[in-house]
Structures are given as C-alpha cells and as structure tokens.
Amino acid sequence: MAIKGVLFDFSGTLFRIESAQRWLTAVLEETGTALAPSEVTRLAQQLERAGALPGGAPPHAVPAHLADLWATRDESTERHRGAYTGLARQVQLPDPHLYDRLYDRHMSPAAWRPYPDAAAVLEALQRQGVRIGVISNIGWDLRPVFRAHGLDAAVDAYVLSYEHGIQKPDPQLFRIACDALGADPYDVLMVGDDRRADAGAAAIGCAVHFVEHLPVDHRPDGLRPLLSMLDQPGTPSA
Question: How many helices (H) and strands (E) does the chain have?
Fold first, then answer.
C-alpha cells in the first residue's frame, strides 16, 4: 500500500502540554497571585488528580453532575470549557477568577511543546509529497499553536472536533479528514496516542499507528519510525 496521506492527532502525538505545576505557576505569575511554593505544589497535585488540565492526566473520577458534559466535551467550545473548568472547581483556589484563567492558559502556544522529532518528520513527509492532516478531539482552535512553533507550513488540513460537532472515534470525523486531504481512507495512515479514539480510523479503512503519550523529554524519536514504515510494503499498523 502506498501511503498518500497521514493524519496526526495533536495532544500526546505531535505536542505535549506543560506540567500541571508549570501550568498553575504561570497563571499565578500572570495574575500576581502569591502563594507559598508548598501550596502551589499541593494545588497543582490536586488539579492534576481532578483531570483539570486539558491534555494532561485524565481525571481519577468524574463527578456525576459533569458526566454527560465530560462525555461530549469535545463537541463544542462551550462544553469543553465547561467540562474542564468544572473539574478544576473541585479544587479550592484562592481566587474564583483563576479557573477561567487556567483554562485560557492551556490554549496559549507557550503551554505546549512539540515532540523533538515532530518538525523533522512532518517536513520529510511533505518532501515526499505525502498530504498531512491534523485531526483532534478539542474545544478550541489549535492552529496558532502550530504557527507559533513553526509547524503550520507542513499541515494541509485541520479537522477539529468542535468545528464539526463530532468527536473521535466517530468514523464520520475521519471521513471528513480524508476528504480534506483528497485521499482514499485506504491510502491514509492515522497516527495517535489514544487506542480508543484514534482507532476509529480503522473503521473506514485507514491504517493506524500508535505512539506513547509521554513527556516531551522522554520521547525524543517516537514519530521518526514512521518514515521507515512508509518505505515498507504492506499496511502499517501498531
């Protein structure tokens, strides 16, 4: 099979969000909120356990009153903000305005780091004439993150769940993405870190390859094997 297009997930695949500790610290600095270092650490741990950082650790438990919102959080900007600020409100912060400021912070390019091999892999695929798409379950526009980190030029299409009201693993979102690349699903490889959501691409005939959702410094070359895989005959899958 000749791969004509590659779809990449965003969080945990091409980029990784900052730590909960750095996330909270940045917002406290931005707002001029002074807390003892030990208190910052305690609150960051509680926010992480609550799953309040999008792209970070999942919640240990979703409160019953947020269950429906959480299940469909990536279908709209309102639901996404409501779900994550709702989780954050399980932690008592010193200022009620901090919940929205934390949510806003996670959308900033400064909160994200590309994996070390992301740029090289995207550029190599582009040179080979492979069409590149980004397909993400998300509630906000991630394009500025790609532009700020110099990766936007390699991306041919973005398919974001909140813009379509559909979230992975719904096969319809993957069909939209393949159409955006102008490629038959059987000629497309989906690369992601979520074995439930990203596996939905297989339902329409895409090959699927998984990478590990690790901190940036712990995964220096998780994407690079794709380049050798595309040179091999047959259908990549892992």
Answer: 10, 7
